[in-house]
Structures are given as C-alpha cells and as structure tokens.
Amino acid sequence: MIDTAKYGPWALIAGGSEGVGAEFARLLAKAGVHLVLVARTAGALQQTADACRLHGAEIRTVQADLSDPGACSDIAAATRDLEIGLLILVAGANTHSREFLDGDLAEFRRVIDLNVSTPLALIHHFGQAMRSRRRGGIVVLGSLSGYLGSARQTVYGGVKAFSRIFAEGLWLELREHDVDVLELVLGVTRTPAMERVGLNFDAPGVVVAEPADVAREGLEWLGRGPVHVVSGNEPIVTARNDPDRAATVLAAHRTMQRLLHAEREPDDGRGTTHGAGRASAPGRG
Ligand SMILES: NC(=O)c1ccc[n+]([C@@H]2O[C@H](COP(=O)([O-])OP(=O)(O)OC[C@H]3O[C@@H](n4cnc5c(N)ncnc54)[C@H](OP(=O)(O)O)[C@@H]3O)[C@@H](O)[C@H]2O)c1
Fold first, then answer.
1. On the chain, which terminus has fewer CB atoms closer than 10 Å, C or N?
2. 116-134, pLDDT tens digit by residue?
3. C-alpha of residue 20 to centroid of ligand 1, in Å
4. Per-residue confidence at 262, pLDDT binned at 50, 70, 90?
C-alpha cells in the first residue's frame, strides 16, 4: 500500500504517540518504513514505539513540546543522520477554547505555534531535502473547523483554515518536484485526546470516525492531494462553503449550542477540543 521507495526510508510523525498518529505509525511500520515519533508524554511514546518495533521497523522517539519555539531545531538535531521521506503533522487539537476577548493571548499563541509556526518550520526543514531528492510526502491534519468561524474556536478555526490554504499552495509548488502534499481534513474522530475531554460521540447527527480508519484513508490519498476530507464528512464541507456566510455561520452556531447543552464543557485542564464535528452541517440541526 505504501511506496517505501518514494516515502522511506524514514517517516517522522509529529504527534505519533496515540490516536491517529499512532495508527499512522503502525501502518507505516508494517509496511517497512522506519519511524521518528514525536510527542510530549514519554510513556505513550514508548508504548507505540515498542508496538511498532514488533514489525521490525527501527523507531526513534523524540520527547518535545511542538508548541515551543525551539521544537523544530531540537527535532532537526535529533534526526540529522536520517533520511526523512514522509512528514506527518498530526498534533494540533485546540488547547484554548475561550471567547477571544476573554481568553489568554499567550495560550492562543500556543495554538498558533502548534498548528502554524512549528509545522511551517518542520516543512521548511524536511521539505527542502525531499525536493532535492525529488521524492517524498507531507501530510498535515486539518479540521472541519477550518471551513467556518465558530465561537470559542476563533483562533483554532483560523489556524486550520490557514493550514488547508497553505497545503494547497505547497502542493502546487512541490508537485513538479515529485513531492506529495496532502491536507487530511478530519471530522469527529474517537481519539484519546477527545475521549479525555469527554466529547459526546453519541450526539445526534455527528459522524464519528475511528483513528485507524482515518490513518488508512490518509495513506491511501497521499498521492492525491491537495485536500482530502475523511469520508462521511463531505456534506458538512459542502454546507460550510455556502457563500451566504452569515446564514451559514449562524446555523452552525445554533446547532453547536444545542449540542453543547447536551454535554459538559470541554477544555478543562489539559483538555483539547476540535469543535468542528460537534456541530452538524449548517441547517441540519
Ligand atoms: N479528534 C478529532 O475529533 C479531530 C477533529 C478534527 C480535527 N482533528 C485534528 O486531528 C489532529 C489530531 O487530533 P487528536 O484528537 O488526536 O489530538 P492531538 O492532541 O492534536 O494529537 C494527539 C497526538 O499529538 C501529541 N501532541 C499533542 N500536543 C502536542 C504538543 N504540544 N507537542 C507534542 N506533541 C503533542 C499527543 O501526545 P502528547 O499529548 O503526549 O504530547 C498525541 O501523540 C489534530 O491536528 C486535530 O486538530 C481531530
């Protein structure tokens, strides 16, 4: 399924310890690709690394906070001797769900650094080598939140919109150099991060995907960028692109409010949230 000559010998997964990132890791290890896994929590990193080693792949772990300004240099230093043929940027859940004026600007900046500053630095670093070799792939995880503004997700929605538009431009620039670029747009996905914040996966009208299916779909679409929306979410994207923005944004907001009444408030403590999928398509709820 994976062309190891094109995307090997090593893949780097930023956010590769659990959820969709861990599933990417398992699939790639099975296919014979060696892995660099990056995340903050040592235990989960080790567990995923051990599981992947069972498939015979070499695994290197890097414990780093991707919202720190020095993250890219640390990762570059830890991988100096490796040929990274595939870069998968997974980590990016919303860590600060507050109304903008009431929120902490420094916390909003961390959402930007996790989703924009560090991904740009990593892509700039590893993408140059891929372009020189004329092979490789870059996958960035997007969100339905990037198609529409929503309350308490102003910054998160903005960075996910940035990510998708950036990926489209990069896809254009790199396709003639045989480097693939894919923005993989997720709807609600049953990841450990979302389970920890108690996301209501049973809310009416919500399409819920499993991390293993999302990762498999991502690898299947790797060479068919620039954007792939995880199956089942296409009608939501169509509805969110309606040119009547006031009606579209308000309809989604009302749906979101109804759903929020049925569940507890997310984003407490280490809580992360994506917002997007809980609101069904505008006008549907
Ligand atoms: N799950 C959904 O419903 C959903 C919906 C739409 C879009 N998405 C997108 O899918 C991606 C994955 O989401 P997710 O739900 O799995 O949660 P996530 O927290 O974005 O990703 C989990 C992985 O990233 C690592 N990670 C998180 N923050 C990190 C940081 N600051 N530095 C280093 N590693 C970090 C986690 O390990 P550690 O915590 O140990 O660091 C874990 O390996 C995100 O980009 C998100 O925006 C998800």
1. N
2. 999 999 999 999 999 999 9
3. 8
4. low
Given a contact cutoff of 8 angstroms between Cβ atoms, the answer to whether 14 and 122 are in contact is yes
Q: What is the distance between the alpha carbons of residues 194 and 243, in angstroms, rounded to a whole number?
A: 31
Burial class for 106, CB neighbours closer than 10 Å (0-12, 13-18, 19+): exposed
Ligand 1 atom nearest to 209, measured from its CA? 3
- Around 219, how many Cα atoms within 13 Å sit in the side-chain half-sphere? 26
d(CA 158, CA 161): 5
* Index of the ligand 1 atom closest to the CA of residue 156: 47
Rounded to whole angstroms, the Cα distance separating 158 from 170 reads 18
Q: What is the dihedral of CA 233, 239, 241, 244, to 10 degrees?
A: -170
- Whole-model pTM: value is 0.93
* Ligand 1 pocket by Cβ (under 6 Å): 15-21, 39-41, 44, 65-67, 90-93, 114, 141, 143, 186, 188-189, 191, 193-194, 272, 274, 276-277
